[in-house]
Amino acid sequence: MIRKYYMKRVFKAFNSWAPQYENEVVPKLIKRGYSYPELAELIVNTLELREGRRAIELGVGTGVLGKEVRNRSNASLIGVDISREMLNIAAQKNVYDYLINSSAEEIHLDGQCVDAIFSAFMFHSVYNQKQALYEIGRLLSKKGKAVIVDLFPSDHSPALQKLFRGYFHSIKYEYGAPANYKSIESVHKMLKRSGFSILAHGQLGEDKNYIHYYFSIERGD
């Protein structure tokens, strides 16, 4: 019941956000001191994306990042998003080989089907994050790599305080979508417990109440 309620609110929020999404998120990154083209460059270089390689983007939104990744790599891209309205806009960019309307927790693709996976600002919206990491591991080829970029609380406030702050952050900036924020330390541990090797990690842009942080990981075998 809790998951059903959570997912229903996520659907509603991101479908409502879709028409304004790009107009809001692009300037926010610039205010942080970096941009989607720079983020795409990091992803392409880290994942060694190029023509002939196949990648999945989890949480494509309107395709703002996928477009930059495709332009820099010419890799084959599969896009996944929970919001049909986001996908409708992403489809107009003509950068994805195909798009899948799905949560990150259960993606109907064969195992070991891609060389790389990336996501930006999606992980905190996932209800069952351990299951999403299982899916990433299942879909990656042997020694496949992934990059996860997300928002993280910037301090060490008590967990309950972070929970309430995350809720109000979501209401204000993500059209009321529920959020499942974790600390950097807890995601680091979750990744290792899920069988990934952590190749690199670090902050992106300037400090604010929530910092942007990335993990570069490799599937362990």
Describe the model:
By secondary structure, the chain is of the alpha/beta class. Helix content is 43%, strand content 25%. The protein has 8 helices and 7 strands; from the N terminus they run H-H-H-E-H-E-H-E-E-H-E-H-H-E-E. The protein has helices spanning 2-17, 21-32, 36-47, 64-73, 84-91, 129-139, 159-173, 184-193, and strands spanning 54-58, 76-81, 98-101, 114-120, 140-153, 196-204, 210-219. It has a 7-stranded mixed β-sheet with strand order 3-2-1-4-5-7-6, with helices on both faces. Helix 3 (36-47) packs across helix 4.
Instruction: Tell me the fraction of residues in β-strands, as a range.
Output: 15-25%
Largest sheet, spatial ordering of strands: 3-2-1-4-5-7-6
Low-pLDDT segments: none
Radius of gyration: 16 Å
H and E string: HHHEHEHEEHEHHEE
- What general form does the structure show? globular
**Helix run count:** 8
Report the average pLDDT across residues.
92
State the share of residues found in helices, binned by percent.
40-55%
Q: How far apart are the termini? A: 35 Å
Number of strands: 7
Which structural category do the helix and sheet elements fall into? alpha/beta
Query: Describe the biggest sheet?
Result: 7 strands, mixed
